[in-house]
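Two proteins follow. First one:
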Amino acid sequence: MMLRRYRLEVIALFAIVAFIGLFLLTTSFAPDAEFAGADTAGSAQVAALTGRSAEEFTPLVPQWEPPSGEIESALFALQAAGGGLVAGYIFGRWKGEAKKG
């Protein structure tokens, strides 16, 4: 009876444990492997297509560096809050439209 009540929580816990187990299993087969991200793969593709490394290219718009780490964190938090507001508004509209119709 208790498992039925907390069915979604049990499924989520099982999925998390399975994901961690799968991650540990795959990394144990290749302990010396380097896991490269999309930036590394993209840079390699640019170098293969153009014959130049990605570091040789200059950006069209100059890069701006925030004056301190606190300002960078504040801007990131502001961006996350804005995204949360937009997502909340969209889901709220969908919920309101579903109640009307």
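Second one, unrelated to the first:
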Amino acid sequence: MIGSKLDIGIDLGTATVVACVKGKGIVLREPSVVAINKTTKEVLAVGKEAEKMIGRTPGNIIAIRPLRNGVISDFTATSKMLKYFINKACSKGGFGRFRMMICVPSQITEVEKRAVIDVAIQTGAKKAYLIEEPVAAAIGAGIDISKPCGNLVVDIGGGTTDIAVISIGGSVVSSSLKTAGDKFNKDIIKYIKKKYNILIGERTAEKIKMGIGCVYPREEDITMEARGRNLNTGLPITIKLKSSEIMVALIESAMQIVESVKSVLEKTPPELTADISDKGIYMTGGGSLLYGLDRLLEENTGINVMIAQDAISCVAIGTGKALENLDALDAKSRK
């Protein structure tokens, strides 16, 4: 049995939920998918098992992502999903009341923040705290954010891209846009449908993105086979795709991220801009691993761009490190 002083950090991502426990590090990484019986509203599967059902369920079962664009779109499903993950992360035995820190996009509204806290309390949390994703990502990337020095972090997740200039432990200028990993997948689906009149699923689009996706010309044009449904005949079909044509599909969304970074830089105080120019831009999140995105950003800003080590886990690692300060936060709130 785990004691009541348990502290849990949750990276509540649109595509993936990562949980860390104070003193143990990352203990769980699962897709944020829930399979529900539409008739009884019963949760049939969560995480990896539910993800396998996407696009493969009978009429009375739906596999859904209860988080959209970094915020809760289905309160009940999110609550059940989170409860399942916490039970799994904290061993099969019972555990006492715990404190929870959850990552949220930098630009979410007060109502959306309240929804996240309510879900945390419903799952059994004694207290819930929120941390902005770029701040958590910066901590996870090993940046010392306590100093009066400008650090620009671009965190590209599944549902949102969060861009923030961080100094003395907080965001000075920030922006959040709904162009991220999921949008890249939709771009690929849309492109293949328009060019080949073939419909592919989300999971196939994800494989194409990870396999041959790029937003900067590769030295060699690589190919990949993908299966879909011919919209003329209704029959399965296999096509061969080139990385150069996937670049055509993705470049517009990639440039939206670049323009948003430039916009944040324009609003940044001159002293902090000078710091960023010296230190460079840090990229975190799974979306930052898209081939050529760092080079595209570097070419358009003139600033050196670095992809953080273990970019996918940066937010979760940062949340885990932030758990160390919960006692100080509690003491401050009591005062």
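SUMMARY FIELD: The longest helix spans residues 243-267. The domain at 181-249 is CATH 3.90.640.10 (Actin; Chain A, domain 4).
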